[in-house]
Amino acid sequence: MKIMFKQLFVLSQLCLATLWLGSCSMDSSNAPVSPGNNGIGGSMARFAVVGNHLYTVNNTSLQIYDISQPADPIKGNVVKLGVGIETIFPYANQLFIGSQTGMHIYDNQNPDRPTLVSRYDHVQSCDPVVVQGNYAYVTLRDGNTCRTGQNLLDVVDISNLSAPKLVQSYPMKHPHGLGIDGDILFVCEGQFGLKVFDASDPANLVQTQFIPGVKSYDVIPHNQVLLLTGEDGLYQYRYTDPQHLELLSKIPVAVQ
Amino acid sequence: MFKRYLSSNVAGVIIAMLLASLAGCTSEPEETLEKKEGYRPIYMPYEQIRQFSSTSPRPLEHAGKIYIKGNYVFINELNKGIHIINNQNPASPQPVSFVSVPGNVDIAVKGNVLYADNAVDLLALDISNPVDVKLLKRIENAFPNQVFPPHTGVSFECADPAKGVIVGWEKVMLENPKCYR
To answer: Domain range holding B39?
Structure first.
């Protein structure tokens, strides 16, 4: 009995630990979409749910909705962000906003009124961002709607939120979405494929695998399974071994 | 004191004008019957946009963003809606249903409620029964209409949001286009 309690405790702690990632894997299998926890979005998202708030970003601003009654979202404050806003990634007490001119960090301790802490600026590019621990990972991409950017992966030290500092810049081919789980970083290279990195030392990322055939747009790594979307459909890979991702399934797009 | 107020006010107006020109339309100098290549908005009437239905699964065509909630995966079908997939076994994901939401690109979930953009509107959808998704609430005009084309250095026919939601831009020959970006 005692052991069982201990196991339950450990299990619940594990669930709590993964809460920030969204759902706990204890969801009962046959149930409908389980109530309770929030879900997990990808790095290209313009919507984010944090607690009782839904945040949506458009090109210039952040709109806040009160969703304490989920069925009845109520329009709240608008925060002007600037121009060329593209993505939002919530992490800890912050909102990380990807824009065409850089990454904006907003403090979210008062969820109705996020306040600007700092900005990390760079050349004009399209750039989603994901965060883990003391580091933010930002991809910069050139292209028609992305101004005259470069193709890079920037690793930014955010241990001091008011002074984000570039740790290292890595050349990329044409990066889109990205995702990180523990020491494994996934970067979508668009038409070129998917790259997997060992990120145990963020200042010295080591590529562990490159899967060239997979046209990738965005990824979500979760519970050892990587979800990947792209031009060809939805792929799922087990990444227990980051050197050899195991393809579990693919839902292809319809032949047109 | 008054003078300072006046000058800061003038500066404000100038900044506002600069911002307006950055944000979209700037009028071009008038010329007589000038034909040039540019972009024309493609409108979809509001009543056509504001249609919602929960249907049987359909094939993926243009997979957009993804979202995970419990055992379910939601995949945006670019500008058309949301595929709901039961992903209890990632080796064999099972399509459950398709939610038709014109103009949809983004999704997020809290509890049993899925939030989705429906072009300019925000929808709250009840997904407690994923084969029969129901509309709980619509917030009209939650998002701005895209009143300029996704290109810079181009002429375009000025958008008229009264005609509907702008769902795209086509490249055509325009007579005296009044807008430039």
So the answer is: 2-45+146-180
